[in-house]
Amino acid sequence: MSAGALEALERVLEGGGEPDDVLRAAVDALVAEPEIAWAAVAFLEEGHLVQGPAAGEPDEAVRRSVPVLYHGAPVGELRVDGDVEQALLERAAALLCAHVLIGWDTGGERWQP
Length: 113
Known about the structure:
four-stranded antiparallel β-sheet, 4 strands, 3 helices, alpha+beta
């Protein structure tokens, strides 16, 4: 994942919208990177990770994941299949945290601000 991927992710997040739509666009932006084959967000529900939005073709042999934390508390996980630097993956997870929190908190139901 490049710095350009983080910039693309930031543009998606700045565009706003429904949290589920933003997360779908975010994983799409990540798989647009040549070194990322698949990306997904999982929500932490009742102590278990539940698969959320995903894009690309999975290749578990090269899977990396990092927790998504909101104010230090885990609310999900960002999963990526490909060649990704840990620091960039952690930064991407931090950028997504508020949207993952809303998806986690609503149990996937539409959220009205």
